[in-house]
Amino acid sequence: MRYAIVIEKAEGNYSAYVPDLPGCVATGSSIGEVEEQIREAIEFHLEGLREDGLAIPQPSSQVEYIEVAA
Questions:
Q1: Spatial distance between the Cα atoms of 60 and 23, rounded to a whole number of angstroms
Q2: What is the mean pLDDT of the chain?
Q3: Going by fewer Cβ within 10 Å, which terminus of the chain is more open, N or C?
């Protein structure tokens, strides 16, 4: 499965979340670290859903960039 993630720069680190998996979040001191952490968080989240007998949400979010004049 391929889930969209959102990475945001915070004051002292980076945070990431998965729009299709509410509550699935991670933080890291660099983009590389937060990507690694969110991958682990997604795997853990999906494992928990399976163990609880809940449906795995299909990826449905899309990411696009829109250019605007500054």
A1: 16
A2: 96
A3: C
**β-strand pairing of 14-17 with 25-28:** antiparallel
pLDDT at 45: 98
Domains of the chain and any CATH numbers = 6-51 (3.30.160.250)
- How many Cα neighbours within 13 Å face the side chain of 2? 2
Q: What amino acid is encoded at 41 in this protein?
A: A
pTM value is 0.90
Six-digit token pair at 44?
Answer: 């853990």
Helix, coil or strand: residue 49: helix
Tell me the CA distances in angstroms from 38 to 10, 16, 66, one per residue in order.
16, 7, 25
Question: Which two tokens mark 11?
Answer: 């004051």
Residue 70 pLDDT > 90: no
